[in-house]
# Entry
Amino acid sequence: MTTYVLVPGFWLGSWAWQEVASAMRAAGHTVHPLTLTGLAERSHLASPVLTTGTHIDDITNLLAFEDLRDVVLVGHSGAGAAVTGAADRAAERIARVVFLESGPVPDGAAQIDLTGRDDVESGLVDGWRYPMRSWEEFTAAGVSLEGLGPRERALMAGRATDQPLGTITQQLSLSGAFEKLPKALISCSFPVDQVRGLITSGHPLFASLSGPEWELHGLPTGHWPMLSRPADLAALLGGIR
# Structure
């Protein structure tokens, strides 16, 4: 069986992976859902001094202190930068990096460059806290809410915590080790055929997915598949080694 580390995107904690992790463990896998510093049950540690580097440390420290090897490292949405940086730093422990509704962040770039600087900066509270957007704002921005019923929306709204700005804006400095790792994309909001078309066309956000180290997978649902289709996501991840 395989070892997985599951890293949530903006505003979420390990709680978001609960159903996915339970199903994967029942299938015999070892699963480590992670809450990044400053979020969810670690929200008491939130401060303006947190950076993407802090979240990279969260991931690499888990790998080191649990002595995890041959890991499938999964990053959802806004965790793309932290997962990219952690995989680059601890490449010898990683079997594959999986980007779930996310993508790698290039050397010298920051997560905010993919997320959208205007959206983040216009929504800040106290100059450094980025709260979860409203459902109406998500819809207006083209973020798919498919599969999120009243229960899932209430769960997210009740448990979401503000994202510290520094964990979005710090630029990555990569060694090149990340580039050599096997990778996979799980696309939910966009059909895989559309993703392939964007890759072929050289779209700047998708062109880097063209190499032989990439697998492409589709799971039709909204942007939060761990909540909208947890059993199906668990089965899909369990097949990625």
Strands lie at 3-7, 30-33, 71-76, 94-100, 129-130, 163-164, 183-187, 214-218.
